[in-house]
Specification:
Layout (H helix, E strand, L loop, with lengths): L4 H19 L1 H7 L7 H19 L5 H24 L9 H19 L4 H5 L1
Helix pairs in contact: 1-3, 3-4, 4-5
Length: 124
């Protein structure tokens, strides 16, 4: 274990979330905005990326790159969070207040990933 424990916690979060995309795909199909046509592909690609990036976080030479790509992934999936707040079809029965709390949580997750980026390593 060469990385800080909280990095492994973050990695586990993304690996478990990624696996869940394959365990319960219908859950994710509901939160993908309808203007995206291939929900199965989007769900599987997102799940796959979460698993791969979660694993890559734990590999010292790839931590910075994985963290940077996690930030990009969080930006790319943000429309699903907006969709959940805006349209009742995407709410999954969750209370609206909880969905509003989820929006800034995405930025906290981005900041958490940002804290693991070693820019010197990333760009050299």
């Amino acid at each position: 274990m060469t990385q800080p424990w909280h990095l492994y916690g973050m990695a586990l979060l993304y690996i478990v979330a990624g696996i869940n995309h394959f365990r319960k795909p219908n859950l994710y199909y509901k939160i993908i905005p309808p203007f995206f046509t291939n929900k199965k592909f989007i769900n599987e690609m997102t799940g796959f990326l979460e698993i791969v990036l979660g694993i890559a976080l734990c590999i010292p030479g790839f931590t910075s790159l994985a963290a940077a790509f996690i930030i990009l992934l969080l930006i790319l999936v943000f429309p699903a969070n907006i969709y959940m707040v805006t349209y009742s079809e995407g709410r999954l029965g969750l209370p609206l207040w909880l969905l509003y709390i989820r929006l800034p949580l995405q930025f906290l997750l981005m900041y958490w990933a940002f804290s693991y980026i070693d820019f010197e390593q990333l760009f050299l």
